[in-house]
Amino acid sequence: HGFDRGAWTVTALAEALRGRRADLKTADAPGARDAWAGLATRDHMEELGPFLARLEEDDRYLHDWSLPARAPDLLGRLRRPRWLRRGELLRRCRGDGLSWVDAWPS
């Protein structure tokens, strides 16, 4: 069973990720020690349900959070584009010594 089209709404994702935690990023600290892609950690282990519920009011980001590692039950319920299910992006990256490819989709 996949989610219906409404599953990608902020409300549905906030409910599905309730109780899960993640480091939230911000773009206002690009010189921080952990900065990557212009984002740095602002808050450690913030609960995702409340964060997503107030997403429009928040200037933080959930960035590069691995679904297979952190929410494998959710991964099986989301409908993904066919090209992503076939692993097109991963096929292009394998063999390049990229350790992060097994974390996709994130």
Give the tags.
single chain; 106 residues; alpha+beta; two-stranded antiparallel sheet
Written description of the protein model:
- The protein is 29% helix and 13% strand.
- The model has no long low-confidence stretch (mean pLDDT 76).
- With 106 residues, it is α+β, with helices and mostly antiparallel strands.
- The protein has a two-stranded antiparallel ribbon with strand order 1-2.
Condensed summary:
The chain has six helices and two strands. It has 106 residues and is an alpha+beta fold. Strands 1-2 form a two-stranded antiparallel sheet.
What's the SSE blueprint?
Blueprint: H1 10-16, E1 21-26, E2 40-47, H2 48-53, H3 67-70, H4 72-75, H5 82-85, H6 88-93
Please state the average pLDDT score.
Answer: 76
Task: Sum up the overall morphology in one term.
Answer: globular
Widest sheet: strand ordering: 1-2
Gap between N and C termini: 20 Å
The helix/strand series, from N terminus to C terminus, equals HEEHHHHH
Low-confidence stretches: none
Give me the secondary-structure category: alpha+beta
Largest beta-sheet characterization:
2 strands, antiparallel
Structure annotation, total helices: 6
Question: Over all CA atoms, what is the radius of gyration?
Answer: 15 Å
Number-wise, the strands total: 2
Range of strand content? 5-15%
In quaternary terms, these chains amount to: single chain
Helix content: 25-40%
